[in-house]
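To fix ideas at the outset, we first show an illustrative case, written as a sequence plus integers encoding its fold:
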Amino acid sequence: MRLKDKIAVITGGTSGMGRAAAELFAKEGAKVVVAARRKRLGEYVAESIRNGGGTAIFVKADVSEKHQVMDLIDEASDTFGGLNILFNNAGINNHGDGDPHNEDLENFDQVMNVNLKGAFLCIRYAVPRMIESNGGSIINNSSVLDLRATETSSTSYHVSKGGMSMLTKKAALSYAKHNIRVNSIQPGAIATEMSNVSWDDLETESVIEHRRKFQPLDKMGHPIDVAYAALYFASDESAFVTGASLLVDGGSSASFGRNR
């Protein structure tokens, strides 16, 4: 029960790393608010947590919209009596042309609004509630692509995740005096919907065989791997850790030009 009685908001909580974190946090004693845009799936995830003995509600929210974020934080705090943990996990990618001069402007704005502005808005409105709760932990789900570039990913995704890295550092400095810690996770090739792997296919042998080729460790990156990293940052075990980034990439960042 590493998160006993803590109140956690998890954005993008209906699938992948967000869903894995929501289920894990609940098992560890947290009262979980699953936030996402897909209502039916969100209600299903929250109900599954409750059926498993955990505490969870779903709040429909688009993190790129200020008033929806305000309502999300208010509902979470009012329902459970405070806020201790924010996992900024909501994210999208634009799989179009990766070169800056070719990227569609509408797609660029959409990715930036969800990935970076969404995290900024959630921090903006969560911090006052965390101050009322005498501190807390903010975890930003970034990417290995926040510090290195590839030809296959979009400019907007790189820029949004690079911004997430700096947002983490700035917020860590700003809120340390309030006992609010801010850290980030840098996932590598994790099998999620963004990488075209559905939740129900995570244990499929062909999926595992394909995804395990993306890093030196001879296994597939799974959403639960990131969830456990988030659990560490959310728990009091990381009480002296802020402004840090944790790679969860199977060793891919340690290799130069690796090709399997």
Notes: The mean pLDDT is 92. Strands lie at 7-11, 31-36, 55-60, 85-88, 136-141, 180-187, 245-248.
